[in-house]
Design brief:
Strand content: 15-25%
Distance between the termini: 16 Å
CATH architecture: 3-Layer(aba) Sandwich
Structural class: alpha/beta
Shape: globular
Number of domains: 1
Bound molecules: zinc ion
CATH class: Alpha Beta
Largest sheet: 5 strands, mixed
Length: about 180
């Protein structure tokens, strides 16, 4: 059975990674391993936007990954794709790599006081969302489903941390193909 490797990129508290790893293990019934942290991804920095290219980081994660393992990068830096102001994450659909950023999941980003429980909940939802893409899911119209596309942390806070019935069914079907 494939393993899920969590790769910290930049400075992220160990207990945040550890609690994410525990939830993912429970959710995906896979061995989850937190890898040694990688430095901030200067190779992906865009000086004009002062953000990091999520696609470049994803590509790097894929090139470093070994056969059979799924990889989830968790980064402290703010991510973008060319057409959007920012993204919470990106993934290879039906592939093996996913990436999330915790930058805009932190209440402090919006000038609010820190709230570790809320932060961990948001991280868990965005991780399960991106891994859903890896499992072949697209976005879902149900705003309570974890596959709903988050435009803001409000969307993330409204959605649950699980796949709706229809998304769950489609994961099951895909796993039989
Ligand atoms: Zn998505
Ligand atoms: Zn759904």
């Amino acid at each position: 059975m494939s393993r899920l490797l969590v790769v910290p990129i930049g400075d992220i508290e160990f207990n945040i990674l550890n609690s994410l790893a525990q939830s993912l293990k429970h959710n995906f019934k896979k061995a989850v391993i937190v890898e040694m942290p990688e430095p901030e991804p200067s190779y992906a920095y865009d000086i004009k936007r002062q953000q990091y290219s999520s696609s470049m980081i994803l590509k790097r994660l894929k090139s470093e990954s070994s056969d059979g393992d799924l990889v989830l990068g968790v980064t402290s830096v703010d991510l973008f794709v060319p057409k959007l102001t920012f993204v919470f994450g990106e993934a290879e659909i039906s592939g093996k790599v996913a990436l999330i950023s915790i930058a805009r999941l932190q209440p402090g980003f919006y000038g609010l006081i820190s709230n570790k429980q809320l932060l961990e909940e948001r991280i868990r939802k965005e991780a399960i969302h991106e891994l859903g893409h890896v499992l072949g899911l697209n976005h879902c119209h149900n705003n309570k489903c974890v596959m709903f596309f988050s435009n803001s942390v409000t969307d993330t806070d409204i959605k649950s941390d699980s796949y709706c019935e229809s998304c769950n069914r489609s994961i099951k079907i895909k796993s039989l193909l």
